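Quick one - first record:
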Amino acid sequence: MNAAPVLTIKKLSLSIADKTICTDLDLTINKGECWAILGQNGAGKTTLLHTLAGLRSVDSGTISLNNTPMSQLSSRTIAQQCGLLLQDYQDIFPATVMEAVLIGRHPHLSAWHWESDSDKAIAQLALHDVELANMAQRDIQTLSGGERRRVGVATILAQQPDLFLLDEPANHLDIKHQHQVLKLFSQKTRDENKTVVMVLHDVNLAARYCDHALLMYDDKIELGTTEETLNEEKLSALYGYPIRKIENEQIMFMPS
């Protein structure tokens, strides 16, 4: 498959309160790539991700989605092409698991139209992919934190965007489901030429499932392949704590 830009960021400057997140950032993210955003708490990872999703205005610069500036796209068009998984969800109204996942189909529905059998089949497949197919009729407020997280993943899978923006997708998940979920998105990049950008705290998950990384230091951002960026020197500087690399059946980064 040929590489083609999904997100094009030019001269992006972004701040929140009195903190500068980035200045004059240039970045192109292509189809079929899987990016990790790494950095200490408070570095601005979530702020940057929300900005890439079109939820925050920029200080200066442009963000283009599939070669069209986001400022020229409607919210519905953005939602058809770009899906955002938030860190946490608050379920205000009671709903079944299936009803929650079907929200992912709403950007593709015409005004006043209900979900079709095709939409329901897509949602059911997404629930199957996260091992929740047998819970489709459960009240979402009865789920555990990890189960609710997997419902969120199923919702964004049902949305079927070109670009997945994931804020700590492994949040609340046990080890098995961390790998299951990240493997799902990694397969999307390989098999369907989708694009994934995810905020992660676990460097080992980034090394295993991502091919590129964006490192957010206090005073700069560094970009590159995971092979170029995920090493002892750069990660120790990034987190302000010594990190060592162990290689066996899979690479592991451990505090030293």
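second record:
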Amino acid sequence: MNIKKNITLLSIALACAGLTSCDKDTEGLTAITYYPVITLDGPVDYLTEAGKPFVDPGCTAVMDGQDISDQIKVVTSMNLENPAPGYYTVNYTVVNSDGISASATRNVIAADPDDKASGFYTVDTDSYRDYAGYVYYGGYPLQIVGDGAGNYEISDLLGGWYAYRAGYGSDYALQGDVTIDDDGTITLVDSYLIGWGDWANDLTDGHFDAENGTVTWNVSYTEYPFLFIVNATKLTNE
């Protein structure tokens, strides 16, 4: 029995089978695939004026060294000519000839011109949780979005303690509905944390400083209770 010959024949058969499989896997694709890349111009988080046309900072798309920005498709629920107060995403997508896509997203808050509180914030590092001692934290994103009538939604009254610091994700942000008076007083209306199905006990010492673009509040949370002192500073479009 010629074992060497049989092994050689088997190797050839397997190689042929592998080539057939590769042919099927790559069917419909070009010999070389170039991947598109999208780069946003301007900030990812963008504050714009409600009631005025949205001036998109735009983005560029490049594939194999060629500018294909004219192929970018833009999708958003925002009325670009007359945006209402609120929070929106603007999604940019480009697809190559093999159906491989690249995408990027810009977050947009539209606010009335006299609404100084709405915008994107960063939680200051002097924020802390008070429970048997202080634990300081900060550096996390925060959004405050107004409806043009003094009512606001705050993305996380805990300043990112669970959502970012603990890494649990957005379901563990304590979303809050508040009012902000002309003198800057922040008053809690309602709150809810999806992940645990609970809410804040109370919010005290809430204040918005329009001159400095800062907010602060104290939130009591859970029956322990934990006390969160959150300070945050508004970002500008840069």
